[in-house]
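User: Hi! I have a protein structure encoded as tokens and I'd like to know what sequence might fold into it. I'm fairly new to this, so please keep things simple.
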């Protein structure tokens, strides 16, 4: 299945999705409200069968007041890749967990929570995974400051 066909199938499954520009793979932007439903469809629809969540991360678009969440999916049955992104308000960054769809998301969501401060509604153990429990702030946010950080020369 080609990139255009794959994107169109995803949009047919969830009409509120729209195409996202990507240089190397099929990509769609999903509304946060449809994220859980969409991810289940992407896994369960036999023409898609996205059985692997390869990666999950976030991008801080501080000037726009939002985070962009990125999910990279792969189908071992069909050999195709898909990038799903969704925007979440920087002031209240909470999205539904996808850990019930792909158990590996449990750790990936904890990492994004730890470093960006994004919450995952329904996550069973959302706590820091790299940093100490009493760490202040989220170091991958573009406005993060730490008094112990070195200033550039």
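Assistant: Happy to help. Inverse folding works backwards from shape to sequence: for each of the 153 positions I chose a residue that suits the local structure. Here it is:
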């Amino acid at each position: 299945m080609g990139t255009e066909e794959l994107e169109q199938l995803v949009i047919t499954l969830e009409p509120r999705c729209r195409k996202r520009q990507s240089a190397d793979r099929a990509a769609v932007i999903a509304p946060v409200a449809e994220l859980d439903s969409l991810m289940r469809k992407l896994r369960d629809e036999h023409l898609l069968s996205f059985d692997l969540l390869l990666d999950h991360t976030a991008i801080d678009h501080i000037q726009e007041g939002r985070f962009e969440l990125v999910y990279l999916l792969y189908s071992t049955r069909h050999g195709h890749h898909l990038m799903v992104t969704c925007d979440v308000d920087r002031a209240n960054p909470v999205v539904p967990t996808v850990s019930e769809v792909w158990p590996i998301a449990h750790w990936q969501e904890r990492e994004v929570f730890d470093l960006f401060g994004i919450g995952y509604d329904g996550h069973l153990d959302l706590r820091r995974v790299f940093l100490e429990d009493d760490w202040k702030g989220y170091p991958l946010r573009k406005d993060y400051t730490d008094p112990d950080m070195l200033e550039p020369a």
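A useful reference point when you look it over: Strands lie at 18-19, 26-29, 52-61, 66-74, 81-89, 94-96, 119-121. Feel free to ask if any position seems puzzling.
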